[in-house]
Write a structure and sequence with these properties.
The chain is an alpha+beta fold and 166 residues long. 41% of the residues lie in helices and 32% in strands. Strand 3 and strand 4 form a beta hairpin. The longest helix is centred in the middle third of the chain and has 16 residues. It is globular and about 40 Å long.
C-alpha cells in the first residue's frame, strides 16, 4: 500500500540544522547553490540563537523564508518581506516545477494568519509559467513587471472569498 504524502508550509529557523540541510538539498537539485543558505549562515554568524529569537519578536519588519515540503523534501521556497504595522508583504516564490498550485494557497494562508497581513504582492520569475498560470486562474491582479519579475496582488478579502467559494 502506498503511503499518503502530506505537504506543509514551515517557517525556516536559521538555527535548525535540519532546515539548513533541506535547503541545501533544494539548492543543489535546482542549481541555485547557496542562494538561501549563504544568507542564513551570515545570520547565524552575526547573532546568537537567543538574540535572533528576541529580535524576531520585537521587530516590525518581516524578513523570513518559508518552505513547502513533502516527506522532508522541499517543493518550493519563498522569501517573505513585509511590515507588520502596515500589514503589507512581498513574497518572492521559487517552486519546483509544477508544484505551485499546491503550495501557493498554503503559503498565502500562512502569511495572512501568521502576521495579520492584509495585502500580499507575489513576485514570480517570468519564466515560471506554472505559477503565473495558477495566479491568473485565481484572478489575482496582475500588476505587470517590476525588477524583472511578474507582480501579482493578493488581498486577504479576496483570499477569503476564494476559500468560501471552494
Amino acid at each position: 500500500m502506498r503511503e499518503l504524502s502530506t505537504e506543509r508550509v514551515f517557517l525556516v529557523h536559521p538555527y535548525d540544522d535540519g532546515h539548513m540541510q533541506m535547503i541545501k538539498d533544494f539548492e543543489n537539485s535546482h542549481s541555485c547553490f547557496g542562494k538561501w543558505t549563504n544568507q542564513l549562515e551570515i545570520l547565524r554568524s552575526s547573532l546568537s540563537k537567543e538574540e535572533y529569537d528576541k529580535e524576531k519578536l520585537q521587530k516590525n519588519e518581516i524578513d523570513e523564508i518559508l518552505c513547502c515540503e513533502r516527506g522532508s523534501k522541499i517543493l518550493g521556497i519563498c522569501h517573505v518581506h513585509g511590515e507588520k504595522d502596515i500589514r503589507l508583504a512581498k513574497i518572492h516564490i521559487v517552486s519546483a516545477s509544477g508544484k505551485s498550485q499546491k503550495m501557493i494557497p498554503e503559503i498565502l494562508d500562512f502569511v495572512f494568519r501568521q502576521w495579520q497581513i492584509e495585502e500580499i504582492f507575489m513576485m514570480v520569475h517570468p519564466e515560471d509559467r506554472d505559477t503565473i498560470h495558477y495566479l491568473m486562474s485565481q484572478n489575482y491582479e496582475d500588476l505587470g513587471e517590476e525588477s524583472g519579475e511578474r507582480l501579482y496582488l493578493v488581498e486577504r478579502e479576496m483570499m477569503n472569498h476564494h476559500q468560501r467559494a471552494m
